[in-house]
Amino acid sequence: MAPILSKTVLMTALLALPMAAAAPVLAQEAKPREVISVTGDGESSMAPDMAIVTLSVVKQAKTAREALDENNKAMKDVLDSLKSGGIAERDLQTSGFSIQPQYNYPQPVDGQQQQPQLIGYQTINAVTVRLRDLAKLGQVIDQSVTLGINQGGDIQFTNDKPEAALEEARKNAVAEAVKKAKTLSEAAGVKLGRIIEINENEPRPLPQPAYRATMMKEADAAVPVQGGETTYHVSVTVTFAIEP
Question: How far is CA 150 from CA 1, 75, 124, 128, in A?
Answer without folding.
Answer: 107, 11, 10, 14
